[in-house]
Each structure stands twice: as C-alpha cells, then as structure tokens.
Amino acid sequence: MRFFSYRIHLLNKQAELARFCSNRELRKVSGLFGGDVVNVSGWRDEDKEGGHYRDYFSNATSYTITNYSGKKGYQNQDGEVFLDLSLPLPDSLPGRFDVVFNHTTLEHIFDFRVAFKNMVQMSRDVLIVVVPFCQCSHELDSFKDYWRFTPSALRTMYELEGMTIIYEASNQHTGAASYLFFVGSRKPEKYFGKMPPWKPLGKQCAWIGRRRWFGPLTYAWIERSKEGR
User: 3-228: what CATH class?
Assistant: First the structure.
C-alpha cells in the first residue's frame, strides 16, 4: 500500500509560478551534466524556493558564480567571478566550464547577442538558458528591462553559435508570466536517449485575447510525494 503527502504552493503569477516551473525543468536535466558548472549572473545562487542552484547539479566537480555590479550583483563571495556579459570575455573564461547556466538575465542586457555569445564561448559543452517570453517589465536603478524572446529566436541564437538544442520547455498557465527553458550542446550525441521526453515548443501563451479573463493573482500548485508503501 502506498501513502502520499501533498504540499500546496501558492504562487504569484507575475513571476513566482514561471520561476517554480523553470526550476522543475532544471531538476529534470541537471543531474545529467557533470564537470565544471557556472551560474552566470546568479546573484546569491538562490532558486527562490529556499534552495540553491548549486544543489541541482549533483554531478558537478566544481561550481562557480559570476555577477556584475549593482543591486543583485557582485557579492564578493569566495570564488565569485566579476563578469560584464556585454564586454569581451577575460582570457581566463573561454572554454573554462562544461556547463553554463543562466536564469533570466538576457532580457536585462541591451546587447543580448554579445552576452549570449560570451556564454557559449565559456562552455565546453552545455548552455542552459531561461528567458521570459511574457512577463511584467521589471527594473532597478542598476539594470533595465529590454527584451522578450520567442522559441524561434532562441533556436536561431543557439544555431548561429554552433550549438544543437537538446531540450526545450515552457510554462503555459493562463494569466501568468511564461519562461522559456532551453538547453543546447556542442556534443548532442552524448545525450541521445538520456534527456526527458520533449518536443519543439509551438504557439506560446495562446490564451492571450481569447476572451475577457479575470482570474486569481495566485496559482495553487499541488505536489504529491510518496511517503511509503
């Protein structure tokens, strides 16, 4: 006999729900990747669920965080690297990491193509990127909000830099922000048969304009966990 417990997450639709969903996508794939991992512009490395992204990469041999200046920027932590993604990379960074991870930073960089290229150059193999497709604008004095991305844009960005998409996903909750979760690799053959099932994303946020919709500002996500048998 199996016993289950249930946990209810009340998530704000403006950002929390999309973050929550992208974290679950990362948990599906992060254990497949090892070696040297970097969280680019990762601030304190917090996943906003009370955990840290470092713990997602259970097979990493090293884990590094980079940050830029300003609020939610460089923390002067041990091993932290100061990095401005809009400038040419320091000589020490190209090819330094096996896995480069970046969560919702590209929309804040005006020259996002330069920033994306820099992250590709930092990686010996895998680049994991999360970007907003649909989200309220959000700015501070130290950073602005410039861009939103489509699946086709990300596919083209990876292709132009010589990477192959090996996984893509998004959240599609009515009235909520939507994040795109993409994984590309220089060595896609390594992951054939290992990645979770997926298919290329189609139309995003298809609910927009269908009807006048008024709904709650929060979303109740119910998780079931097996306790025993």
Answer: alpha beta
What residues pair up with 52 in beta bridges, in sequence order? 46
Task: Give the strands of the sheet with 164-170, arranged side by side.
Answer: 81-82, 59-67, 34-39, 97-103, 123-134, 178-185, 164-170
Report the C-alpha gap between 103 and 163 in whole angstroms.
18
Residue type, 134: C
Give the helix, strand, coil percentages of the chain, each rounded to 5. 20, 35, 45
Taken as a whole, the chain contains a residue count of: 229
Q: Which helix (H) or strand (E) holds 101?
A: strand 97-103
> What are the boundaries of each domain within the chain?
3-228
Signed CA dihedral, 147, 86, 102, 78: sign only: negative
Q: Are strands 59-67 and 34-39 parallel, antiparallel or unpaired?
A: parallel
pTM score:
0.89
User: pLDDT tens digits for 4-55?
Assistant: 444 555 566 777 899 999 999 999 999 999 999 999 998 899 999 999 999 9
Per-residue pLDDT tens over the stretch 173-189? 888 899 999 999 999 99
Report the distance separating Cα 38 and Cα 154, nearest Å. 20
